[in-house]
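Fold it.
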Amino acid sequence: MSYRQASRDFDAFLIDARDIAMLQTTNQAYTMVEAVLTVFRRRLHIAEALAFADLLPPVLRAIFVSNWDAGAPVQPFADRAALTREVLAFRGDHNVSPASSIADVAAALRRHVDPDAFERGLARLPPEARAYWQ
């Protein structure tokens, strides 16, 4: 039952992300979400990334850690414009995410996590990581 509920919860999250970003499909929303999570993960050390993953619902947690090259060097956080360009470049022509993608995913995510637990978890991350989700 918990697996079915996780799937339903993820579907609801994708619909929220799609609607907030004003995308046409949940497939487009999925690519946007994957890009936003991947760009964020590239900037975390393994312990930080795993701590953040623990804050996510099960399917988002799986997306966050999928295709992870844990041996890749950690990239520094950049300004929001540079991070947004990286999100928009994810999967090239298959990505129709808006420039507001990071904020849109953050807004959808906050609707689907325990807000107090999420804030406590973010408080343990570097300031730049916290700012990413504002």
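The two ends are 33 Å apart (CA to CA).
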